[in-house]
Amino acid sequence: MAGVRVVHYLNQFFAGIGAEERADAPPGAVTGAVGPGRALAQALGDQGEVVATVYCGDNYFNEQPERATEEVLALIEPYAPALVVVGPAFNAGRYGIACGRIGVAVQERLGVPVVTGMYAENPAVELYRAQLYIVPTGATAATTGAAVQRMAALGLPLARGERPGRPAEAGYLPRGLRFTERSPRSGAARAVDLLVKRLKGEAFETEWPVPAADRVPPPLPIRDLARATIALVTSAGIVPLGNPDRIESTFATRWGKYSLAGRDDLTGAEWEAVHGGYDHTYANQDPDRIVPVDVLRELEARGVIGRLYDSLYVAVGSGASQASARQWAREMAAELTAAGVDGVILTGT
Amino acid sequence: MAKEFERAGLPTAFITTIVPLAQNIGPNRIVAGQAVPHPLGEPSLGSAAEKELRRRLVGRALAALQADSPDQLVLRLDDPSASAELAPA
């Protein structure tokens, strides 16, 4: 009996095209399994076959997502898959976004079920969890084996038209969707039951966790720009040449603060990029492309802004947990507010 | 990080290429960057034109810092409705 036809989507790195320097690679396709696709093929066993692998560079995708999605769909469709597996993207944000967008497009436009895998903190999870089956993975590709096992186990029944069980049982991240089920007990009875447990201090499980919105009310705008002190902060990891504080290129444990006093711009002779998630070529040629000291100094000289704050605050966002990034920013904010800074320009990738 | 600056009361303009993500989990004031490896640059332009592009992007960021809106704001270079240009000094 023929196995389920599976097409696998990967980014340029996992497809073996190249690393960050090839993140601009346009979409392409090859027959059979590539890279982690081989582990996927093993996990599928004789129930499925990876007939093709479609790939696209993470920057090519994110810089023109609509066009890239069309091109990727056009490459997937001729293989007539019964299942499309995208990723796993682990904690890679751009890759996760590509996986999410392509996964949704495949479901909606090709009508083919999709399974993906991401680390729970991948920023793409919040964007796509309600629309896709996302298997939770570890943060890095070291967890590939376990990830593709679970993706295959979830995907095969989907390909057969079966609806998976609840997230905890079937092994995917809760989607925030509600399905109507019959319960032998009325809602009133179940609510009182929960309340009694809670009052007694016993363990209970809510039927519906109330989502917490987390938009911060916008701080008051700057009223008098010509008198304002503007601080530059970057999460893109531009540091003095030699990285004196040894800020790690991924999963960083520290941030840095560097003097801009007397500097009218940043040059590659004195600064370098250390963030592990993007190609450093352009940043190292001219770090002002990441941290626009040159323009802020011009504006300061013209009196458009009051002044550029003397210190540049630097973090490396690659792989940073939300908790870490928040902690760093809290520490930086305490210094910035104490110094009387009026506003921040934060540059990321 | 941007939201923590906002929580501390600092108006913050976040320049990023991946706008949909910032809209979802990010701050109120967002400026669309040029590209992932060069958000405030464009190597394919000559250096004078690239600098001008950077000036315009920084201009958007400063305009965002001065914008008074309860809603999240996304400013882009190619958005004709953005009256958010700095007046010439």
User: Which quaternary structure do these chains form?
Assistant: heterodimer
Low-confidence runs of chain A:
none
Return residue spans of chain B where pLDDT drops below 50 for at least 5 consecutive residues: 83-89
Residue share in helix of chain A: 25-40%
Largest sheet of chain B: 3 strands, parallel
SSE series of chain A: EEHEHHEHEHEHHHEEEEHHEEHE
Key structural traits:
heterodimer, A: 349 residues, alpha/beta, Rossmann fold, 5-stranded mixed β-sheet, 13 strands, B: 89 residues, 3-stranded parallel β-sheet, 13% strand, disordered C terminus
Summed up:
Chain A is α/β, with parallel strands linked by helices and 349 residues long.
Description:
The complex is a heterodimer of chains A (349) and B (89). Chain A has 349 residues and is α/β, with parallel strands linked by helices. Chain A folds into 2 domains: 4-170, Response regulator (Rossmann fold, 3-Layer(aba) Sandwich), CATH 3.40.50; 225-347, no CATH class. Chain A has helices spanning 36-44, 58-63, 65-76, 93-110, 123-128, 144-159, 167-170, 187-200, 281-285, 293-302, 322-338; strands at 4-11, 28-31, 48-56, 83-90, 114-119, 133-137, 229-234, 238-240, 256-259, 271-273, 307-308, 311-314, 343-347. In chain A, helix 3 crosses helix 4. Chain A is globular, with a radius of gyration of 24 Å. Chain A starts with a strand and ends with a strand. Chain B has 89 residues and is an alpha/beta fold. Helices cover 37% and strands 13% of the residues of chain B. Chain B is built from 3 helices and 3 strands, in the order αβαβαβ. Chain B has a 3-stranded parallel β-sheet, with helices on both faces. Chain B is elongated and about 40 Å long. The N and C termini of chain B lie far apart (32 Å). Chains A and B meet through helix 2, helix 4, helix 5, helix 9 and helix 10 of A and helix 1, strand 1, helix 2 and helix 3 of B. Strand 13 (343-347) of chain A pairs parallel with strand 1 (12-16) of chain B.
